[in-house]
Amino acid sequence: MKIDKKIIKELSDYLKEFNLTEIEITEKDTKIKVSKNNVSISNQPQVISPSSPASSSAPTQTQNIKSGIEITSPIIGTAYHAPEPGAKKFVEIGKKIKKGDTIMIVEAMKTMNHVPSTADGVVKEICVEDGQPVEFGQTIIILE
Fold it and tell me: Thinking of the domain 60-143, which architecture would CATH place it in?
């Protein structure tokens, strides 16, 4: 089996561009999976080799110690701070919110999913930029 390094490079670039932890592509009987921890290619047996150090850099925001109530993304997608471009943002730093208030929209597969607050509190930090890709379980807002 010949490995197309161009595909692996392209998938690695997508990891960095969209801040993903892993991505996988399947064509016929070949599956290529690239993650920040490893690269694997399988036809029948699975071969695992370490990825390049450049692709294993973690976002700095997950390395910081956070205090407060963390609200996480319920799905993978793109986070938006407002219902439409130019509209008023759902939350601002210092704003009081109640459990159930919409704090953000996460778009996945052309569907706009409203993310409700899971607790009452005051917005201490907004952890994602408008239009930034988010992963399941990633902290998007911290409340006091």
Answer: Beta Barrel (2.40)
